[in-house]
Amino acid sequence: MGFARSAMDDKKFRDYLAPYLRKADISDSDVQKFLSRIFYFSGAYDSVDSFLKLEIRLIELEDNATSNLSYCNRLFYFAIPPNVFIPVASTIKTCAISKRGWNRLIVEKPFGHDLESARVLAESLGAIYNEDQIYRIDHYLGELWV
Predict the structure, then answer these.
(1) Which of 83, 88, 105, 132 has the smallest count of CB within 10 Å of its CB?
(2) Distance (Å, whole) CA 6 – CA 129
(3) CA–CA separation, 88 vs 32, rounded Å?
(4) What is the pLDDT of residues 32-60, one digit of tens each?
(5) Which residue has the higher pLDDT, 115 or 144?
(6) Number of compact structural domains in the chain
(7) Any idea what the CATH number is for the domain that residue 141 is in?
(8) Is residue 7 domain-resident?
(9) Residue 21 lies in a domain
């Protein structure tokens, strides 16, 4: 599930992603199969209502995809500005965490703009989530896969 402020639907999101997948050595049928499981949700980072609606959509998708499973894990990848890490993490904790599985955050760096701001972010995230739920990745490492 992609979540961003941009007005987009599932098809436009899939069309956006498809060229990146075709660069890899993957068959067209596998690309289509993968894309059929990709969805998009347009919402605002600072909107509890957006995250409540996201939760409803996630439950709907999980129920349709996992009728035989008793768990649904969620991983939230934060490729967002550092100034919204804490509000988004807090709203997710309140509105959109899985109640049937584990929850993880991947926080893409830059993680603050200096050591002090990084410490504040780490402490603030640590007040919301356990350390084993938080993963940090350097966005330059992520770009190596593109």
Answers:
(1) 132
(2) 27
(3) 31
(4) 999 999 999 999 998 999 999 999 999 99
(5) 115
(6) 1
(7) 3.40.50.720
(8) no
(9) no
